[in-house]
What does this fold into?
Amino acid sequence: MSDPATLVRMVNQIAANVAHHPHDQAVAEITKHLRATWPLSMRVDLVAYVDGGGLDLTPLAADAAEQLRVGDAKP
Amino acid sequence: MTLLREPDYGTPARPAAVDAERVTVHVDGIRVSVPAGTSVMRAAALAGVDIPKLCATDSLEPFGSCRLCLVEIEGRKGAPASCTTPCGPDMVVATHSPRLARLRRGVTELYLSDHPQDCLTSGVHGVDGEDGKDGECELHGIAATVGLTDVRYGFEGKNHLDAVKDESNPYFTFDPAACIACSRCVRACDEVQGTFALTIAGRGFGSMVSASAGESFMASECVSCGACVQACPTSALTEKTVIELGPPNRTVLTTCAYCGVGCSFKAEMRGDEVVRMVPAKSGGANEGHSCVKGRFAWGYASHRDRQLSPMVRESINDEWRPVSWDEAIAYAASRLKAIQAEHGVRSIGGITSSRCTNEEVFVVQKMIRAAFGNNNVDTCARVCHSPTGYGLSQTFGTSAGTQDFKSVEQADVILLIGANPTDGHPVFASRMKQRLRKGAALVVVDPRRIDLVRSPHVEAAHHLQLQPGTNVAMVNAFGHVVVTEGLVDRDFVAQRCEDDSFAQWEEFIARPENSPEATEQITGVPAEQVRAAARLYATAPNAAIYYGLGVTEHSQGSTMVMGMANLAMATGNIGREGVGINPLRGQNNVQGSCDMGSFPHELPGYRHVGDDTVREVFEQVWARTLDAEPGLRIPNMLDAAIAGSYRGMFIQGEDIAQSDPNVKHVKAALASLELLIVQDLFLNETAAFAHVFLPGTSFLEKDGTFTNAERRINRVRPVMEPRCGKQEWQVACELATAMGYPMHYDRGSQIMDEIAATTPTFAGVSFAKLDEVGSLQWPCNDSAPDGTPTMHVGGFVRGKGHFVDTPFVATDERTSRKFPLILTTGRILSQYNVGAQTRRTLNVQWHGEDILEIHPHDAEERGIVDGAAVAIISRVGQTVLRAKIADRMPQGVVYTTFHYPSSGANIVTTDYSDWATNCPEYKVTAVQIAPTSQEPVSEQAPQELGMVPR
Ligand code: SF4
Ligand code: SF4
Ligand code: FES
It folds into this structure.
């Protein structure tokens, strides 16, 4: 289990750096980036964090994390 | 093998672009065609005719002072000096005649009368017509050539034979008695190195080489590059090791193991002992030049701290137990397997090192992917240039710098961002300074006033002294000026770049928030200055960007790399000589370790692990099914270690307990591991947490290749057998085999053959080809059999160039009332990274401890005086350093290096990192500085460390 605070900081930071794109494109960019560079274990932990309320995620990061659930982040 | 003597043609080559610019001359009846402007001396040498010379050597412009090289030219009066006389069409030259012989004998006799006779027997100097001091004093060589056996005047007259030697430099001696005032050293320091530390003081008979204003070499501006020593034709300037050990008698051509310049060296040996390292003129990266590290600081390889035996221990609190290789490997393998059996295949991993060869790195990542069965492999490039890889592959399609070093000779404007080449990449800096002295304009973007802003005969047109962490705002302002002032190279963009991404970027960058006036609030740099610098860059015929870790080690490191790529594309500064985006790589093999598949999501050649076709290539050759999921990055590994899901680790030649940020966190992670295997030369800080220590090899023992910042693959050849008994790649193979995955190579070349067979950009590379041509710049394959000095000529690797919008996002690391200053870190010329190597050499005489540089105002406000001990306190830690008041720092910013473990610079750096790659944000840490009564932990004096001058 990764430290949730680290995961949140990382994904929020990615979101902040693609936030200038239209929303759907930004979400797609984040999920693409996470799938390409994050190990499965961290993606799974992020989804678990969302399931636990995901309070500290920015809205864009939360949307991306939600998308991550679709298709690959199998617990 | 014998001593390699590179020819000395007397004067430098003159380029001839076209045949029309060539002239034909006849030297002693031999016809030779040379580029116009070539000296008669060089033409003669090319024709195989040696003309005696003393003040000339082909690394320096001719000077014409010794009058030994006289020749006769048909139709001309007198006997002109061949070194300063350019060839004319159909010139007929005679290099020998009774008159010339008489003249030369006379000159030689005068020189000899004021020259120690034992210089002849000291046996340290070169023979005429060859470079380097490998046989005997050139003057005595000439005496023999001109048939001089006796000096009529005797040696009793007025002379310099009793002059006192200057032995202040730890590596070389200046003996004025042997100096013939030929000025070669002075010109080498000026023309090659660009330091201007030497002069000929006095006049006539009293003339004498002098360092700066009559100081010793050590007290002068001298940076100990060795260029003067190499240029000196007598024993006046001589390496101390040559005096101590005697002249060398064989050469091994190899590559420096320090920075990413990757200089080629001749390791000159006497038996099995290295006598000296001499930069090779044939080296593509350095062309005969060197810096103090590569030239002199190789003694660490035989330092008494070297660990030569494998060792194991159950717990990190136990004493180390030296064991056999077999026992160490069996122990490591069984514990790794036990961890995997209990915690899963992905519970172990490793880190490769940018200080190791391509072959060593390739084998370690193969061991992790094939034998460990996962992609938990990362490299120390994570903490330096991972944003370069990301940014350049997004925009251009490949993760590499675009030019060779020589390209800078064609640049009209050099935009230098976040790099300090005179310290970090000294040999390239010398090349850059040569170009700047010839008139190229320089723009420096750096919070500090680095030496290049103003140094002898070099002055930056603009120094944009921005706030740390605001690079992206700055590059956007440049882009804004280019777009809004009509400076876009429309033809280039239309032909070479994507229409849609350019259109989108053009709209983005033209927004008012990106204007220099708006970004001035962020960067602190006046808008007019930014506009002027941007115009200079955009309107130059050739403008080149060079950058270093001041770009990458930020929370927006990757964004900044893309911002620079946007700028180069928009102005058409890509795809030919003199332009481009040039990362100055930190360690010798950063480029190579990344190329070799050290990232957890990429197989060799930067191909994603999720790509089935690519995986199949490796699965076939390696006969193993490979994991399609990216593995853990270094910071992820550390977090997972603390969380308990990552429990075993192999670290190749890296000291993450010193080099990585937030050391407290790193150490906690290392301490949580069940098994840590460290392979290194020394018991470093990380080894304190290890259970298995596997001794490594120094570059003098390695057999492989390094790839430098210009993608140049250079051979690293062993000058001796591995002192620990095995090549490092052998050890990784044995560990993999012990874990149940048989891996074996007979020699390094077989590993390169496997790299070539699996990695398209390396398809044409082999040891045999490298031995034949010297070096190759990848891509090297069927379409570029001789390699690729300049990339993206005619088209980008990805097809069309891709523009990326790069909005500025401020780092979360903010200054506050409690932490009002920003600490930024870097390195110094004489030391290298964590200092494991350079601290074990006499280079400590230049830099014995890490120092905190602070602006006079910030110091005064805190009651800090020069040399006082100060506490540096950040949100994560605290350390003590000695302060140096430095007006090159801007107010509000402090600076230190991280070469000494005791100074703990990384105790204070934080976990913040680049958004795309997690490259740590070393360049921005909010701190407070306060005087303290505590003393910095001092390092031992070199004498106490048992150092000898080599
Ligand atoms: S060692 Fe280098 S810097 Fe020092 S005097 Fe010689 S050429 Fe100049
Ligand atoms: S440290 Fe760098 S510049 Fe110095 S000799 Fe080595 S490769 Fe060249
Ligand atoms: S070598 Fe030509 S004058 Fe000295």
Notes: The pocket of iron/sulfur cluster (ligand 1) is lined by residues B 188-189, 193, 195, 197-198, 222-228 (CB under 6 Å). Chain A has one domain: 4-72. Residues 4-18 of chain A form the longest helix (15 residues). Helices of chain A lie at 4-18, 23-37, 40-51, 59-69.
